[in-house]
Amino acid sequence: MTTQTAEQLLSKKCVPCEGGVPKLTPAEAGAQLESLRGWTMTHQGERIRKEWVVKNFLAGMKFFNGVAEVAEAEGHHPDLHLVGYRNVAIEIWTHAIGGLSENDFILAAKIDKLPIEVKVVAAK
Q1: Nearest Cα to 92, choosing from 74, 73, 105?
Q2: Tell me: the pLDDT tens digits for 45-79?
Q3: Are 33 and 41 in contact, with CB atoms under 8 Å apart?
């Protein structure tokens, strides 16, 4: 896969994957990850993850509802985590291949465009 900018990823749509395509190598995934802000690789380079601390529980649920709409439109569904009522995390990978594909980065770029109410930390 050729490394793409976030804007290039945003212009694409996830392609259904039932397996049979090679997963990205950790090096390919790492290169692509550089175009997305705040996402990290996990599970030995087979997933990407991003975490936020949201303003409150309802802000997290509102964000997840937006993520659900994007995921459904793309036909590509991430794992959503809400812990401690305001700690939000998303993990993405292509389940059918047990690793990362272009679809994961397309979805991450689209998630990054969603509004999210993060907790504001007071200056000391």
Answers
A1: 105
A2: 999 999 999 999 999 999 999 999 999 999 999 99
A3: yes
